[in-house]
Prior knowledge:
51% of the residues lie in helices and 15% in strands. The protein is built from 13 helices and eight strands. α7 (210-222) runs antiparallel to α8 (226-239) and α11 (297-308) runs antiparallel to α12 (312-325). The termini are far apart.
Amino acid sequence: MRSSCRLSLPIFFLVLLLCLATEISAAAQGHTIRGKVRNSSGVNMPRVTVSLESGNGALLNQTVSNNEGDFTFTNLDDNSYVITASAPDYSPASERVEFIRKINPGDPGEMRTVEITLVSSSGGGTTRPPSIRFVQNVPKPAEEQYILALASLKERRAADGIKSLEKAIEIFPDYFDARFALAHQLILDKKFTPAIAQLDEARRINPKDDRVFEAFGMVLSGQGKFAVAARVFAEAANLNPRNLNYLVLEATALIDEASQIDPNKSVTSREERDYALNEAQGLLDKAYQLSGKKLATVHLQMARIHEKRGDPSAAATELEQYLRQVPNDKKAEQIRSAITQLRTSATKKN
């Protein structure tokens, strides 16, 4: 086990490094690590972020445990690794894995099995206080550049805005608002790698701002990494439980993840897909109830869940409920068309 300072890295930072890491070869060779994550009560823990690090602490890969708490890393060619499991409201835990021999090309390698136990860091509670405005003593020249940047961005002069933000950061490297604004603009420009770097600096300066996790979750979703995006949105919700949109975003990522799974491939695939959809439905139900049944976007995502479960009638009902709450939606005609198609499909199915 490593020291607490190494184990306290937030999920965001671990996922960040994953996006910058080189993809491991898909060839069937090398060592294999299989493992399971449980809590202190012995219950298997699904959807836990599991990171693979080299012996000196460099992040190499990352995955999410399945609904039985299992995970696997393959194609490993080194002799020493560290496995770290991280989940909201639990203290991260690590296990070192050592292999005996160095592999050669084409060598199937050795296999190791590890078990990781996560212990609650907050007694099981999930109600951290919402984000508080982060106040900094910003040097006046840096603030002037920041204000100038906002004006440029408002006038859609992105290049000038970025240049002013970079000047503000050069004057005051720990300028949270400037780094966050720069990351946002870089995301809009689809420059994800420099955007991720700015978001990580923003996280370092203010690790309790849920907006940073939200932004990174959006980047991950855009890259199709829905399982890890769901975990990042969960961290945003953990930091600011009053923002119910984070629950919807997490649910949406889970639905998108389910969309990537072929339920006919295997029994395990079907179970993984069902689990993701069930988790998404639970999050949407929670968000809807906490909003006093006013969060209309829940109905759109619930419609997706019912459609994927093969229940077009229930999907149409959800869309109808959405239009009752938001009758002037710009896509109302498209939604009505979808309702007609779903009702037709339901009639044929019956």
